[in-house]
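<tokenise_the_fold>
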Amino acid sequence: MTLSSVRGELAQGQLRGPIPDAAEASLAQATETGDLVPNSYLGNGLITKQNAPAAKPWAHFVAGAAGGLTSATLTSPLDVLKTRLQSDYYQSQIIAARNARGMAPSTMFSLPRSALLHFRETFQILFSIHRVEGWRALFKGLGPNLVGVVPARAINFYAYGNGKRIISQHFNQGQEAAWVHLCAAAAAGVITGTVTNPIWLVKTRLQLDKSHAEKTGTLRNRQYKNSLDCIRQTVRAEGIRGLYRGLSASYLGVTESTLQWVLYEQMKLYLCAREERLVAAGGARTYWDKTVSWSGKVAGAGIAKFFAAIVTYPHEVVRTRLRQAPQKDGRLKYTGIVQCFTTMWKEEGMASLYGGLTPHMLRVVPSAAIMFGMRV
């Protein structure tokens, strides 16, 4: 039915069916939950109600898995670099290298000089990995990373998408709201962290295993042969509970995923409202309008991840430290969140809580854009 025919039928009184009230008329169905979102306005003020089909529950699962697989593979070298910079072994190496060059402590540098030094040292380590260990080292831990990322993203998207639908239907008359997004994101984060923690522990220890080889001067003296051997040694030395080291920090990290989801949903609502205004105006779209239409949600996902990651980053470092293998005497240097925070603060200063921030941001921001881009 064309716009002119709708106008004609409206003028002749032939348009049948109940006329929606003002509140309902301005709403349409959201694809994730079947909830109502703003509709499209016609030039004469008539509003059409477009019923978008609700997404199947498994669609969130498939979208998360595909996005996780793609992003994890493309950003693996940065993930290896981030994990190593978060560990105390590599931080001590950086400090030793500075002392050997006769440099003053970084706390005495100005902010621009300190940032420049951080960038330079970060990329020096990245480029040195392939010279010392070969190119394959840039993908060290990719196996367990993929085994972890694919189900983690699939579970997270599935739990969030369906959690949002269930919460809104049972507790908010089918309407979406910021608190609905908050609750759904928090529940999805807890579920995902609990299920996948053993995989992340194995990935972290494999990526840090290079330190054991370098201490002896040979790459053959690895502590772990592969992922299965890492699991065997961990269970033998620390028990089943050893596979869940760092879980408390993962729960602390739920704040990151929750903040990311809430920011992303608010950006989607803004983009939806912007689209409605453009449709209502009825004018020709500019190049900028077209660019925002096809790239807005992808950019929004990256921006949401950027702010969420910056605010909550210290928990990433603490989680990595808690997952480190025991020392030579079998004792664990870090035994809990509070003890880890205080130890790092006393021994390395506040800057240590942001170790590996640069490669982390270079990895997670485009990774989020890729994953959410495959979802929208």
